[in-house]
Amino acid sequence: MFGRRRVFLIGCIWMSIWTLICGFASGKFLLVSRGLQGIGAALNVPAAVGILGSCYEDGPRKNKALAAFGAGAPVGGGVGLVLGGVFTQTLGWRWSFYVSFMINVVIIILGVLSVPNDTPEQIDTNRSVDYGGAMLSAAGLLAFTYALTAAQSSTNGWKTPHIIALLILSVVLLGGFLYLESRVTSPLMPLGIWSYPYFKAIHFIALMEYASFASFVFYATLYSQNIDEASPLTTTVRFLPMATVGLLGNIVAGYIVGVVSGQLLLIIAMTASAAAPTLYALTQPDITYWAMSFPALCLVVIGVDLTYNITNLFVLTSVPPHQQSIAAGVFNTVTQVGSTVGLAVTSAIAAGVSAG
To answer: What predicted TM-score, i.e. pTM, was given to this entire model?
Structure first.
């Protein structure tokens, strides 16, 4: 309705503003600022995927473009890890936000200069804003994710009254969202999008993959710092292979997607993702980093990057051009929910094992 380019730039501007605010915030306001910062990513990531989807015809060039987009995650994550570790031990953690703000400003300038304008055919002027759907979905997901994360620190865990109330509220709100989407003329998420072949299966795979990946990274970090007693900077260096392997993996994926069966690539990705935590589960404090941790870190990023490329490409090619940004938004939401659910479930398991 507003155009992909405009939404992308609005998201970048929003993120840059709240990134700078995070650099000066503290306490609960920092947590709120971080949450508001995420709105920027929720805007610019689906818009960016939609821009790529509309600029390239299906084929090798589009595969390579999406692989290059996917490579941004390991490269950005690697750079962020290095800078975060360095700043934490030198200038202070707030500099992570200051430098991120500067990077965002550069992205905004490059976006203004290089992102193509939307054609009139790509902008649906007859579409209205689904404010009700936006509020219900945001409130429902917020209540759900907060309940999952707060349950771990509550005295009675999942039996805590306000946790139970929030979970029930989230079900009601999300149920209301689905009902509203089936009734309004311009829904935020057209329910018909789920009727495309394998659309539900692909999103379930993405949900489980990101649940596994987020949990792996969290506990691998804890293992490095609490068991191996490594400093934040040393832990950062140990995680650098993820960035390198992720970049190389995305380059390879750009060339082999479309040549090798997507089903086979997903099997390889799932196998790598399963092998990574298995290696950490079998490792011991006296085993060298190169024997277990290093191959596990390489395998997990191969799994998540291959999964992202295959599932994201399928999502974009399975829906009409005018629904590509919507599909990308749904995909992005599913991966974020997967990360939250994965951390909540594994935290509950860890707490139960620790309690005996």
So the answer is: 0.78
